[in-house]
Design a protein that fits this description.
Blueprint: H1 7-23, H2 42-57, H3 76-88, H4 98-109, H5 112-123, E1 129-132, E2 148-151, E3 156-159, E4 173-176, E5 178-179, E6 190-191
Length: 192
Amino acid sequence: MNFEYTPEHEAFRKAFRSWLAATLPADLRVDDPVDDRVASNREMFERRVAWQKAMHKAGWVGIAWPKEYGGRGASIIERVIWDEEYAAARAPVLPGMGLNLVGPTIIHWGTDAQKAEYLPRILNADEIWAQGFSEPGAGSDLASLNTRAEDKGDHFLVNGQKVWTSGAQYADSIILLVRTDPNAAKHNGIGR
């Protein structure tokens, strides 16, 4: 098996590295990519939103998303190179759960209407998403979810609690895991 990058891969690396060197503001560079300054600092959060908008405008966001949904359609190797260069530049984590969790979920399972509504807004950081998975007494054990969602026809009635919802104070929306069938086996009956 050949573990060397192709000339095309190296050209991709060089282009992204050059763009980051020319564009990433020095005061956004971090030593810890999950730097908690954004958790308590609205100004830092807004600067990261502006950074994502700049990245999107230049075609460097949603790198592995299919082109038809506004992404670049990058290969897995290009995504690895993107991650390597982004980390080497000490660039900050982009805001919210949209790019790496919600967007890919909508691309795979969403309706055409959901894709049209949410994906462009996620890419451009016009809509910030939080993750609502963890619960008191369950932590990250998703099989222990107790929050319920009851289908009311045109909406769901949700009852329960979530904890550790990082970034929720800035989020416009939340991807929420809930129990839709309380009588199902512990690992079943979970909806999103």
